[in-house]
Structures are given as C-alpha cells and as structure tokens.
Amino acid sequence: MTLKGVFEMEMVLRNFFLFLSKNKTLNKSAKKWGLKLGAKQVIPGVTIESAIEAVEKLNVQGLACTVDHLGEFVFNREEAIESADYCVRTLEAIANSGVNCNLSLKLTQLGLDIDRNLCRDNMKRILETAKKHNIFVRIDMEDYSHLDATLDILSELRREYTNVGTVIQAYLYRAERDVNDLKGVSLRLVKGAYKESPEVAIQDKEKVDENYLAIIKQHLLSGSYTAIASHDHNIIDKVKQFAEENDIPKTQFEFQMLYNFRTDLQLSIAKEGYTVRIYVPFGNDWYGYFMRRLAERPQNVAFAARGLLK
Q1: Most exposed residue of 62, 189, 290, 291, measured as fewest CB within 10 angstroms of its CB?
Q2: How many helices (DSSP H) and strands (DSSP E) are in the chain?
Q3: Which range of residues forms the domain containing residue 233?
C-alpha cells in the first residue's frame, strides 16, 4: 500500500470511530458492558477508589496525575448536579489520600447544554473545594460548538479563582488567537480529537503539527505555564530543545500523556527531571472517550484488541 493509501485508510478509521463516539445508543449500551472491548487498557476502573489506587502507583514511579470522571450526554439538571457532586467527592478523595493529582472535567457534564448559570454555579462549587485543598482544575475542551461558551465561563471564573485553566486545540484556525488571549493562564495544548469542519479546522496532519509547535512556543515565550499533551517523541524533543535554547525553566511546563500509553516514554522523560502528568480517566461512562482514543491512532485499535484478548 502506498503512503497515500495508508493516510487515506487512517482517515477512514478516524472518521469511523469519531462517528461511533457520538452514538448515544451505543454509549448507553457500553455502560452495561463494563470495561470490556479493551477499554480496561486505558481506563483503570469505574470508581473514585480505583482511580486513586492507579494514581498512587503512578506517583511512586515519579509521575504526577490528573483524574477525570468520564461523562457525556448530560441533558437534565439532576445529572449535572450529580456530576458536580462527584467532582467534589473526587477532590476530597485526592486531598485525603495525599496523592499528587489534579482534576479534569467537561462543562457539558456540569450542565452547559442545559443552563449556563447552572454550569457556572457547579464549577464555582467545585473550585471552592479545590481551592481549599490547593488542587488545580482543568476544563477539558470539547467540540467547536462548545468552544466560545467554555472560554466565556473560564473568563468569568478566573475573576475569582486562579486554580483553573483549560485546553486549546491546535487544529483550529483560531488557536493562535485564543492562546494569545489566554496569556498567563495555565493551558494544556493538544492537537485536537474531534471531527471538525474544514471551515474551522486544519485538515492536513503536517500543518496541524506545525501549528501545534507554534502555539506551544507562543505560550512558553509569554511566560505562561504550559502543559504539552503529546505522545509524539519528535514533538517532545523539539519542545525540550526550544526550552533549552530560550532558557525556559522546567518548572514552567510539563508533558502530559494518557494512562497506559507509551509508559516507557513517560518514565524516561520523568527521569530527565521534567514533570510528566498522566491523564487518568475513570467511570462507567467511558464509551465516547475510548472511541476518540481509537480514532487518534490506528495503532490504538491493536492496543485495545490485545486488552480484549486478555
């Protein structure tokens, strides 16, 4: 198969899994299956206790963490409030266990699609608890339709809280502008994991990589704390070199990777003295997250299959 053919096959697989990730019927069924179909390879469990246990093991290896109670398709107030309650309990568990761990969450879990004020109030309750325990909270970025609302709520929250940041996706044409507007805010920078229109997102992989490196350098040079979320060793090496050449201290940035992906790389970077933070998802609403991981790299399909066979 030619290089072009391989690329086209990858795009077909990516689009297929992204399509599946939005299927509400399959998402509902997945909750009944439990962590089957290979999902246990990338999600350590469904409870807070299982997440904390995984974090403790990673901390022992010199890795920091952030946990995320997975959840999608929240369309009523009761579910949104319940999700916020769960986030608060997770923060308390982090504090009580003494682990090195942050919290990640999605605003749609907290009612963004229901009532913006409800979502904001849920976030304030979570951030108050996080502030009490000196824990940082990261608002994960979702698809383009939620981008402006997410940044608006972040701006409102930042008037009262400094322990909150968000994510910027490099495949969006507006990424450079958003990073500039968020100077001084702790950002996780990623390539992007949703299927977006060519009107708003770069479709060429090489150009996405170029823009990704550009916004990383942009945020680092502004003196802002930067989390580089990537498993691409070429990107990681270029960031290391750029930081050295520009006297950017290791305390100003960190590398972030997913739970159980490229574990050897995670440990080797940590041993070099860089902060490496592992994204640890948990919960029974794992389906959408798992499908997007399969969409990111065809190799992940084989990875998941090995877990299923086990």
Answers
A1: 62
A2: 12, 8
A3: 44-285
The pLDDT-based confidence of 297 (bands split at 50, 70, 90) is low
The whole-chain average pLDDT of the chain stands at 86
Per-residue pLDDT at 42 exceeds 90: no
Number of structural domains in the chain: 1
Say which DSSP state 172 is in: B
Q: What is the mean pLDDT of residues 146-166?
A: 98
Residue in 14, 188, 277, 293 annotated catalytic: 188
Catalytic residue list contains 188: yes
The structure's pTM equals 0.84
> What is the full DSSP assignment across 107-141?
GGGGTTTT-HHHHHHHHHHHHHHHHHTT--EEE--
CATH number, domain containing residue 140 = 3.20.20.220
Does 229 fall in a domain? yes
* DSSP H/E element including 217: helix 205-221
* Catalytic residue, candidates 68, 140, 209, 285: 140
Query: How far apart (Å, rounded) are the C-alpha atoms in residues 77 and 55?
Result: 30
Region 151-173: mean pLDDT is 98
CB atoms within 10 A of CB 192: 22
Q: Residue 1: inside a domain, yes or no?
A: no
Instruction: State both tokens at 80.
Output: 């949104």
Q: Is residue 20 part of a domain?
A: no
Range in 24-33, 252-261, 282-291 with the lowest mean pLDDT: 24-33
pLDDT at 292: 62
